Amino acid sequence: MKEKKLFLFLLLALFFLSRFLFIDSGLNLLEPDESDYQFVSDGFAKGWPILRGELYFEQFPLFHFLAYLLSFLKILGPYVPVRFLSIVGTLLVGISLYLWAKEKLSSKAALWTAAIFWLIPLSLFYSRSGTLDMLMLGFLSVSFYFFEKRNSQEKKWGILAGIFFTLGSLTKNTALVFLIYYSLSLLFNRNQVKKFFWFAFSATASILLSYGPYWYFFKNTDTTSTAANMFSRHLLPLTNIKVHLATFWIYIAKAGFYISWPIIFLFIFGVFVSLKKINKTSGIFLKAVPWLVFIFLFDHSARYFLLLAPAVSLFAGFALSQIKPSFLKMVFIFLILPASYTAFSSTLHQGVEKSACQVLALNKNVPIYTTFDPEKFERTVGKETSLLENEATQSGIVVVDQRKTELMLSLTEPPFKEAKKILKWLKENKKPVWEYNDSHPHFPATTLPNKFQIYLNET
Asked: What is the residue range of 252's domain?
């Protein structure tokens, strides 16, 4: 018993240390959406937030409003409020998995499940990035736990499950796909009819109470179609099986990179062990179903693979609990750590921020251009910034990175084709006045480092 308490204490200590250490780091250019989310949340100080010149209706703004309430944390760093919400989401997932596994499997399996989820590279990275996904997953995990909780208080747990499902869907609308999970749970366990009724009643009432005022105040705007367009933008063509198979293969090929090969091994072993004890483990299989639907419906994204992480953790945690030698369990944990560190290191960037400081230090009254996300650099530097264009050949400060520029200048739209041509001219005719090598990897996109350069062109 003392050993379990010590392990739990060390696990929580590792969790908080790995999430809050260097939480004030800069932007990861290959996963930069937290800049938009923080910008939207800051917009509540002036009224309804505006993004890219339009009122923000891409998602219901629960996440952003919560981040706005945490604005005082910006004293620690510009993205700390949104990152704090991701940490909260990760903690909710871990606790929910622990409680579920303790009730359904064993206390040992519960500890290993929580440990593995918090160490999975994809989980560690997104728990330190201020995106919507981890908080959504946290609310959904709590909802799953309440929905499967077995005792006489069916009404209570059903209502709570509905409320937390609503919070998940208000965080990110793709959570609605997880309705499949509740339907399948009811299909395989008819004893949950009463709880499902209270779940449906609670979720419907919560959504109406939330969306009612939202729709009323903005009924003359395009809220529904904007959210629907955001949702459908990443949908794959349903009838093109080749596209779905190709997307599925991408996930298979990147699985070891996303969650590490030791966990892949434990996951596969856990699936085989679970099949032998299907009465205890059927709930784990159900948790994987929404992910299969996601990869069938939507294009490839590391964030969609993240949705499989709870099921992977349960299978892998159950597998570890079945391994007898304690030293072998610790060997697996130590084998996971290098991949976890890669994900951690990918949240320590300062290239954008250092480039902005250098631009300000140049103190030149000329236009500013970048070859990557000009609106995000503009928020950092505090001065108007544009995508590299022909005017830069006359006068301007040009900020160039290596990794994001490769992606953006491979696009075929006219502005990016022009930027590519101007960058080639710039490198042939000018030398950078400043360079910065960012040695940190860019997980989950790549493990390669980055390089920033600033060119100054004065007439």
From this structure: 2-345
